[in-house]
């Protein structure tokens, strides 16, 4: 069998380990021929591809980024007829002699994976995203690394905040789901974690910050980029659109900091962590999860389990229907937020 590997969307720690796991199992154990497409769908459309074998993936597991490159180039031309778009991908896959595709990506990519499989291009999904907002899996690879980086940033900001008796506000990623802010805040003991799913008023945030001051401490507030204050109908945005044509988020910490200072009289500073969350070497957890995901995907190809995604369920990797994975975003449920919120302030 000849299998293509393609990455799409934003980069995420662990992608290299996933490619390595799929190639070692697919080529060395099952005897597949595997090819990788450079820079996602750009490479697929333009025929920019490389052979994938043991030598090509040597030493990849600890490396951040992704050796194949990734992009937000869409699989179908913008504005094109979906039927024609599917036919074009199907024809190109046949031209390359592919028996199927392994697609590494988040919610958008796995939605495309499902569409392609239904349209006659056999596909299997590998779930990566630092936001952990993909259904069908307990965790996506990349999330643990992002949380670890954000937790370290909180630890570092706390020391300078305590030194100057300041309130520190740290902005982390999370457009629609606040998993990074929730987990990093809990791991590092932040006094407040603000997430997109549950708006809070500036009055309530101010009360939490003041209660921390009254105990002789300095507050650390972690906020997801998609958080909105109660009564505000949209998140804070910067100029321009992202790769999906959505308003580019960012800057909520810089909006919150002066509001907190005005409300409490406590000097407040904002820090935006940004793409640091995506970079560098993946954690051991993400390396293992990604490797196991790649192995499971290659095994699923052999078993003909097309139209599935390799999801983590408990401590097992299971092949779940793509429809289950992409039906809706996996957001923080009310009980998880309330569990943390009881300890704010």
Describe, in plain words, how this protein is organized in 3D.
The structure is a single chain. This protein has 345 residues and is an alpha/beta fold. The chain folds into two domains: 185 residues, Rossmann fold (3-Layer(aba) Sandwich); 136 residues, Phosphofructokinase domain (Rossmann fold, 3-Layer(aba) Sandwich), CATH 3.40.50.460. The protein has eleven helices and 13 strands. The protein has a seven-stranded mixed sheet, with helices on both faces. β1, α1 and β2 form a beta-alpha-beta unit. α1 runs parallel beside α9, α5 packs across α6 and α7 packs across α8. The longest helix has 22 residues. It is elongated. The model has no long low-confidence stretch (mean pLDDT 92). Pathway: Carbohydrate degradation; glycolysis; D-glyceraldehyde 3-phosphate and glycerone phosphate from D-glucose: step 3/4. It is an enzyme of class 2 (transferase). It catalyses: beta-D-fructose 6-phosphate + ATP = beta-D-fructose 1,6-bisphosphate + ADP + H(+). Belongs to the phosphofructokinase type A (PFKA) family. Mixed-substrate PFK group III subfamily. Its EC number is 2.7.1.11.
């Amino acid at each position: 069998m000849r299998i293509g590997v393609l990455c799409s969307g934003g980069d995420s720690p662990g992608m290299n380990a996933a490619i390595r796991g799929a190639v070692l199992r697919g080529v060395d154990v099952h005897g597949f021929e595997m090819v990788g497409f450079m820079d996602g769908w750009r490479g697929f459309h333009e025929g920019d591809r490389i052979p994938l074998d043991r030598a090509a993936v040597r030493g990849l597991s600890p490396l951040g980024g992704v050796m194949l490159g990734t992009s937000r180039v869409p699989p179908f031309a913008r504005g094109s007829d979906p039927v024609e778009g599917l036919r074009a991908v199907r024809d190109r896959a046949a031209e390359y002699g592919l028996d199927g595709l392994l697609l590494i990506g988040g919610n958008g990519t796995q939605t495309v994976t499902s569409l392609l499989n239904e349209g006659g291009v056999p596909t299997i999904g590998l779930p990566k995203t630092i936001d952990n907002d993909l259904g069908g899996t307990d965790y996506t690879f990349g999330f643990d690394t992002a949380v670890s980086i954000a937790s370290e940033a909180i630890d570092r900001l706390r020391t300078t905040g305590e030194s100057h008796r300041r309130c520190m506000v740290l902005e982390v990623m999370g457009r629609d789901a606040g998993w990074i802010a929730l987990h990093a805040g809990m791991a590092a003991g932040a006094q407040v974690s603000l997430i997109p799913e549950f708006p809070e008023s500036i009055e309530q945030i101010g009360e939490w910050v003041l209660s921390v001051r009254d105990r002789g401490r300095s507050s650390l507030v972690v906020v997801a980029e998609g958080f909105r204050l109660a009564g505000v109908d949209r998140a804070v945005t910067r100029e321009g659109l992202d790769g999906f044509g959505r308003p580019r988020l960012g800057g909520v910490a810089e909006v919150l900091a002066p509001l907190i200072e005005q409300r409490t009289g406590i000097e407040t500073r904002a820090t935006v962590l940004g793409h640091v969350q995506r970079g560098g070497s993946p954690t051991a957890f993400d390396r293992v999860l990604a490797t196991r995901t790649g192995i499971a995907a290659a095994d699923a190809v052999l078993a003909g389990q097309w139209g599935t995604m390799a999801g983590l369920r408990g401590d097992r990797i299971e092949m779940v229907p793509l429809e289950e994975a992409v039906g809706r975003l996996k957001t923080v449920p009310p009980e998880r937020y309330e569990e943390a919120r009881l300890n704010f302030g």
